[in-house]
Each structure stands twice: as structure tokens, then as C-alpha cells.
Amino acid sequence: MTLGPCEIFEVGPRDGLQNEKRDIPVAEKIALVNKLSEAGFSRIECASFVSPKWVPQMAGSDQVLAGIKRAEGVRYAALTPNMRGYEDARKAGADEIAIFASASEGFSQKNINASIDEAFERFAPILEEARHIDMPVRGYVSCVVECPYDGPVAPEQVAKVADRLFSMGCYEISLGDTTGAGTPASIAKMLLAVRNVVPAGRLAGHFHDTGGRAMANIDAALALGVRVFDAAVGGLGGCPFAPGAEGNVATEAVNKHLKTLGYKTGLNQEILEEAAAMARAMRG
Ligand code: HMG
Ligand code: MG
């Protein structure tokens, strides 16, 4: 059976690598992005303009954006926590940016040293500026099921933060199961609440695979109309500020799974496997 299109938003060069201990040379990061550019993605997150004191691995993001061979039709994305990050991303030539909020106060403090409200105060001028140059802004919500510091997170709280990001102009809201604690039931419950405020067509699932349930959670999200999923080649990654949050769900596995179900992803499995091998070899 052939179903409609499904998109994988590749986060390997950012979420996949940001937590690696080895000081990965810029040239290796560029080579990985160049390989991914051949696979058929529309969007690849490959940079993060955060404090190098907080996330040393993402220092040199400007050099990555400057060094990659840009493929036609691919948007190269970067994380930006504040105006400084936004300005740096714009100067470095990011095609789109992402702001990142948390559904829980504990993770917000540990990740960006700000409360949820303070984070939104930082985001507002970014959206204001981005609008004038037609820069697409994606919005992340972390800890959509569980926070490593505060425990379980209520679906209504996730919906509230997703609604704020969407209302301020984010074109898509990526829902992060940061610790991989989600189950098909808890993901569905959360999505039902979020769908009341953001249409399913503007949502993405960002499911870490720590609990080994990311694929089952993708299925639960598919059943509720989500058609965009974040994944990292080689299943690398995690957030340095979320203890126990190991790998992202692996792009090559998600692509296989979606194709088996009958969705069209437009991705070349062979190139994904090559990129996955490259990503794994980059680990410390
Ligand atoms: P702060 O210490 O509160 O900020 O950090 P500050 O304004 O006091 O600045 C401190 C220093 O950082 C200063 O430098 C600033 O210039 C510098 P100093 O005077 O000490 O030399 N600084 C910057 N440098 C470069 N780029 C910037 C920038 N801003 C300030 N943009 C801050 C606040 C937000 C900067 C910090 O907490 C930070 O960088 N956090 C980033 C955390 C992060 O990247 N986490 C991982 C990504 S989120 C994630 O992985 C989850 C996700 O995948 C979804 C999911 O799975 O849930 C998206
Ligand atoms: Mg993540």
C-alpha cells in the first residue's frame, strides 16, 4: 500500500554530535553534512549558535555552514537560543533557525539558564527580526513527556508551550521526548492535547530512543496525523543537560520503517547507511 509523503528532518550534525566527547574536527562535520546532502533531505540541522562554554562541540558552527557544499532544495538549519545566536546564524548563512523551549521549568533552567517565561522574552525579538527577512523559524518543545529534573510533564503544559511558539510565528513545532521516557500511550495523550492548539500538519515528533520505544512512538504519532519526524543518522546524540538522554532515533531505521509502512520519504537508504557509518566513526 502506498500512503502519502512523510519527511525526516535530519538532526544528526547537531543533536547527534553536540553531546560527543571527542573534539570533532570541522572538516569531519562538513563531510558528514555533504554526504547527508546527497540523501534527499529538504532540511538538515547542522549548526548551533549557543555558548561554546555550554556546548563546546558546537563551536565552529559558522565554519561548518561556510564549508559545506550546499545542495539545491536543502535548507541548512541552526539552533539559536538568543539574539546573539540569531545574529551569528544569519551572518553564517543559516537558511532557517530554531528556537528551543522546554515544557518543564527544571530543564529550561539547566539547559538555557532561564525560566520558560524568560526564554520567551529572549525569543520574541528573534521572531520579530526573522519575520522581516523571511527567515523560517522552527520551535522545539523539550520534555514533552518527562523532565529529568521535574518528573512527569502534563500534556496541557506541553500544549501551552507549543501554542506560544506557534502563536509567535514558528512555522513548525517539534515535540521532544528528550529522555525517551515516552510510550505510545503517553505520546498519544500529549499529542491529543497539542493538536487542540497546533494543527497536526505543523507538528514534528522528536523522539529520543533511550527507552527503545521511539519507533513505536512514531507509529502513535503517525496515527494522529504527524508526518514529520526528527532523526539522527547512526542514532547518535543526546543533550548534555538531560542526564540519561542517549541517542536520537536513527534516521536509517526510521526511513526503512516508514517505507515499509508505505510512506514516501524521498530518501536514498544506501546513502543514509553510508552517512550512518560516517557518524558512528566520528564518535569518541
Ligand atoms: P548564560 O550564561 O545565562 O548567558 O547562558 P549570558 O548571557 O550570561 O552569557 C554567558 C556567556 O555566553 C557570555 O560570554 C556570552 O557572551 C556568551 P562570556 O562573557 O562569559 O565570555 N553567549 C554566547 N556565546 C555564543 N553564542 C551565543 C551566546 N549567548 C551568550 N548565542 C545560554 C545562556 C543560552 C547562552 C546558554 O545557556 C547556552 O548556550 N545554552 C545552550 C544549551 C544547549 O545548546 N543545549 C542543547 C540544545 S537543546 C536540545 O538538545 C534539545 C532538543 O534536541 C530537543 C529535545 O531533544 O528535547 C532541541
Ligand atoms: Mg534532542
TrEMBL record:
InterPro entries documented for this protein: Aldolase_TIM, HMGL, PYR_CT
Enzyme type, top EC level: lyase
Pathway the protein acts in: Metabolic intermediate metabolism; (S)-3-hydroxy-3-methylglutaryl-CoA degradation; acetoacetate from (S)-3-hydroxy-3-methylglutaryl-CoA: step 1/1
Superkingdom of origin organism: Bacteria
Assigned EC number: 4.1.3.4
Keyword Mitochondrion: no
Family: Belongs to the HMG-CoA lyase family.
Protein name: hydroxymethylglutaryl-CoA lyase
Naturally occurring in which organism (per UniProt): Sulfitobacter brevis
